[in-house]
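Page 37, top half.
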Amino acid sequence: MSGATSINREDKKLISVRYFLKMKGKGRSPLQVNVKDSFTGLTGGFLTIVTLIYLTNMTSTEWLMAPFGASCVLVFGVWNAPLSQPRNVIGGHFVSTFIGLLIYHLFGNEPWAIAFAVGLAIAMMMLTKTTHPPAGADPLVVMLGTYSWNYLISPVLIGSIIIVIFALLINNMRSNRNYPTFWI
């Protein structure tokens, strides 16, 4: 019996070591500095966010939310990544906000409900192929801000469409960029 116990302990140690070795990483960051890309990010982020701010100030409608800043990082910084495409920007924000509003209106903004909404939003974005990392914050925004269903249309849907329009216009000004890489 003691032989089997020592093997199990040794196996557990080996599994533990392998598990933590995965966290070591390999090599260096593959990211490269590109001044033109940085300028495109500056221009795109600035024009998109300033437009959403001006629209908010000129109307009685909210056009801006914090996760849109992170969406700008993706559509202008890594414009050709799958999670930066229009389907993901618009769909991800819409699905995630819908989940946040649904859970909020069913269960309130209890800590467990907020956590559940974030997890469910991630799962639903993955199942609908609309994963967009900034949208993972949307349930937090709507539940902590105690927003109504109108928030789904403005700022979420209209704002994300505006981000995509700016991404289309600005990214395609560059001869070496074709945005989007896919719609559906």
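Page 37, bottom half:
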Amino acid sequence: MLIDPEGYYLQFNALRVEASATRERERLAPNFDANTLRLESNSGVVFVVVAGPYRTLFDAIEAKEAANNVDVIVVRGAQLQRRQVLEAEVNFD
């Protein structure tokens, strides 16, 4: 998955265990084209479940409301890139 720096993404979870992130992505699959990113954080590697990109902030907000999950946040692709994406899930071992 290539991150579009101009796009908007829904961030569902940041999890420490890859298997948990995979389960979350699969749970979201019926409603979202979700992916998992491996990111570097201050406390180590985390697996972030995201959906997108959405072309506009309005589109992302509508998708967030449809998710009906208060923990979902909207992030810009450039923000994800600054968080030191190590790799997308297609490259996980």
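Margin note: Helices lie at 18-28, 57-67, 77-82.
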